[in-house]
Structures
1.
Amino acid sequence: MAEPGRPRLTGLLPAGLRGWRQPPACSPVALVWWGSWPRGATLGDLLAVENLSAALLAAGVPHTVLSHPRHALPTHLAIRRPWRLAGQLRTLVFVCGPLVMTKRLRRLLSACGPTRKLAAGVSILERQDPLNALLEGVVARDGREPAFFDLAIGHCRPALERPRPASLAGARIGLCLRGPQKDYGPARDRSAAAADLFQQVLADHPGPVLPIDTVLSATNTPARIQAGFEAVDLVLTTRLHGSLLALAAGVPVIAVDQIAGGGKLTEVLGRTGWPHLFNAEACSSDQLAAVMRRCLETCPLEAIASSQARMLLLSRQALEASVALVQQQAG
């Protein structure tokens, strides 16, 4: 309550400034990721921004990771409206995922007009050319040459350390689906066909099928998602990070690209040499079922080890290129 004889300050402030607070302090270099917004961020997105942040710190590059408060990440700057930081920012680095113009991103870009804009570990989409044109430097994982790799994988668990199912009937199958995917345009989305293929494959499987959702939430924590990959004997997925996280956990994966003509899953996972990568338009449920039986009967240990080594090498190169880009542009 205001003291007697003193005016209420809120009554003197313009309506647009009521409740206004000074924005928190932020480094001139800020990492923006899908977790800078309240919904949609995945474990892969988080691992990518954490890996790049660690690499920048090791290189002596001060920066701030911007995250929405709902993610409750203690080492990040929690802020609901990152565009309020525009006056402090000199360089924005967009990390991981496809670069897609959203309402929140448009508002951030509008507020940060003169700010240098970079991207690392991202998918470049032709449909987003106006956004792509704003970037002064890119380390792409796909969609542009030179293409590097995803930034999410920093370590792998050897497949030999995993226990094997006692029988095919007891094998645990992880199902990690992306769902509808409009990033490449609705005409190229084959998510329904991919889901139907997996449903047919799993119809005769007598063992447990465990859904794995990689989207972060208050209840679906990073630890819980990671435990989901480690708890199964085989993963069926339409997700890029679903494939990479499974292999990093030492688990064989059957990956089906649900984008007509192939999208990021084909381009990025394909560089690892993993043999069980298919397109929804060019495979059958019988073909996938046969691969599933082979993987469960005899785990492809050599193929997993080879792909893990390739992932770690490509990830390291992508991180090095990303750090060099930030140093060059923000230095």
2.
Amino acid sequence: MATVEQAQGLSKDERWPAIAADWTATRDTLQMWTQIVGKLKVALSPFQNQLWHTALHPTGRGLTTQPIPYDDGVFETSFDFLDHNLVIVTSSGGRKVVPLYERTVASFYEEVMGCLASLGIDVRINTKPQEVPNPIPFDQDTTHGSYDADAVNRFFRAMSASASVMWKHKSRFTGKASPVHFFWGSFDLTTTRHSGERAAIPPGRDYIYRVAENEANWAAGFWPGSGPIEYAAYYAYVIPEPEALSRAMIEPVGAVWNAAMREFILPYEAVRSSADPEASLMAFLESTYARGAELGKWDRNRLEISEVPTPRHKVAA
């Protein structure tokens, strides 16, 4: 039987590509572009718990807002990292395409907002970037303007391969859980599981933390790196952090506890260079969740199933 990789004509290295070492400028520009698009959801999408309404979602070609309500219809804005376009479509048949190339954030912002206006979508967003140091308003940002199409495509393929494993890992968990989605503020692909218990909010935490982390949860994701870790990596953490979590035995080899971040970290390179990247990532997801749930005294019998139900075969007439 042909494997998924064989059916798609992709080798392991193509499905799990090396992340370009010199793509930092492109990464930072792309993050600003995703923030512009993501803030359309903040402005117009109905609220969902844990701020899930603000996230972008992976597609077979990039990232999408999914349909956003507007007037009597909807519109959707999608990044295409194969043809390198931003595509805006409306339920009334409108369509605009914004090319992705080396251009400033200010130029990108101006064209996106102009395209929305020409489609009859009157929307205003907060132009100040979130969760980044030294934020420059989008309409004034002529600092970030890099776009390496090959590097973006490599990141997209790594993200897609990671998302497939993360979705599979969700299969046996039946409690409250997020989709596998992309938060543009922190610029990471992530998923969370919730125990059903509330979590205390430490004094002084910001709005995002107060709304997104107010329940006991395990979270894991894929992040291209920045700040304390300037390389692509997987992470996992538990809120509230159980005692002794930092000393828990985690798989696979290469996964470590980062005391400053209070998270387990597994370099992407360790996964992609392993004999079986899918199994390596699955081991990280499952071991961090299992140790966190056990130490946090989650009711796993209530939250998990032992096997995934399958449809009954039709009885021949």
3.
Amino acid sequence: MSIGIIGLGKLGCSLAIGLKKEGFIISGLFSRTTDSVQFANDRLGTSCENNLIDTVKGSDIVFITVSDSSICYVAEEIASNFGEKSIENKIFIHCSGAVSTSVLESLRKKGAYTASLHPMQTFADKEMGWKGLYGIYYGFEGCKVAYESVKPIVLAFKGKILNINKEDKPIYHAAACIASNYLATLTYITGRLLESIGFEFEDGIEALKPLMDKTKSNIDTLGPINALTGPISRGDIETVEGHIKTIKEKEPEILDVYKTLGMITVEIGLKKGTINNEEAERLIKLLR
């Protein structure tokens, strides 16, 4: 099974390196820049030319790891350069979590098999990002033939496949973004709050890290409901009132975030059974 990679950013390079380390044949590489292909070649020990046509021709499976907005364009460019017999039975896979296989329709119409395989992971660099491919979940949406082809890849990375319906891709990706991107945003918010009372931003973040690490550990062990602690979980109205007052004074832009998260935290507190309906109603009234 030969594999080509189109798009050699952080994910594309990570995928290429990881696949090569697991014994898969990298048969072609293509990127907007020659430097990206050279970077990948140097890490892979290959000598692939930066050529779209050759990458597709020489590969059984082609991963398209470009930006979401570029996937459809790349697919149409491939389709326009190949006759039906040339790409028939080839497998094209994009790695977006947000868009469905509809963006590969031009290839499917020419007889190709199509799918999306989204690694539920964040890739921060090209050099060591391949390590993040292991032991994670991969969101899959596509045809059965493509599914059978990606199974050995996911298994090689000791991962698991989540089957996603095409129409559910946006909500699936929203969940992933909240878990990853918004975690960074929430950390930034806590730094701003401590900065507003005189801490250096970096010192504030550093001080909160053990608390965040322990919370993550508790979630891993107990789940999010049983891991919940804090004033809302115990119905401490006065403390929440104090939070709202001081955030409104010092960081008013953050107040809506606090209130929105607080409303959902009330729901968790009810499920945990640490607050009753009366306490929940008082908290909700305060957080509206």
